[in-house]
Amino acid sequence: MPFLEPVTLPGRLVSLEPLAQSHRAELEDAVRDGELWNLWYTSVPRPEGMAAEIDRRLALQEAGSMLPFVTRRAADDRVIGMTTYMNADAANRRLEIGSTWNAAGAHGTGTNAESKLLLLRHAFETLSCIAVEFRTHWMNRQSRAAIERLGAKQDGVLRSHQLMADGSLRDTAVYSVVASEWPMVRNGLELRLARH
């Protein structure tokens, strides 16, 4: 059985659904909210590049290294962004949660925290992961703070790790949650979500 198989992960605030090309128009609308592609330290697709980004993620899913989702907000049934399991390593029961973006209007509403709770729960409780990683640009302070609020611990910084679209070099901050930490991280996320 493959390590990663498409699955819907339902929650109270959001539902994570397997990504499909049929989500393109909804994702184009969501990404226009905040124009996050203009932040030089992110890799958020532009609306006109959404079809290609969906194709890229689905090709990686076919290769077995990624499981991409759309994030659908329960309150209004709108797609508000994308997230993935990526860099899957079945032999070592590890994966990364990343390539995540959410419409600016969804920031601070608990939807991202619940998305991470759903992904982490599935990773540790269904896929029996040993560790789950998060990576972000060192300069993306908002993302780093969000990862730290999850309860992930910083493993280190990979300096000059990736070449960005603008030609600059990305220093990548690497974080992880290991299986023994999962109960504490889960409790923290559930406590945060109880406020929404």
Automatic annotation (TrEMBL):
Transmembrane segments: none annotated. SUPFAM superfamilies: Acyl-CoA N-acyltransferases (Nat). It comes from the Bacteria. Residues 16-153 form the N-acetyltransferase domain. This is GNAT family N-acetyltransferase. It holds the Pfam family Acetyltransf_3. It comes from Sinomonas cellulolyticus.
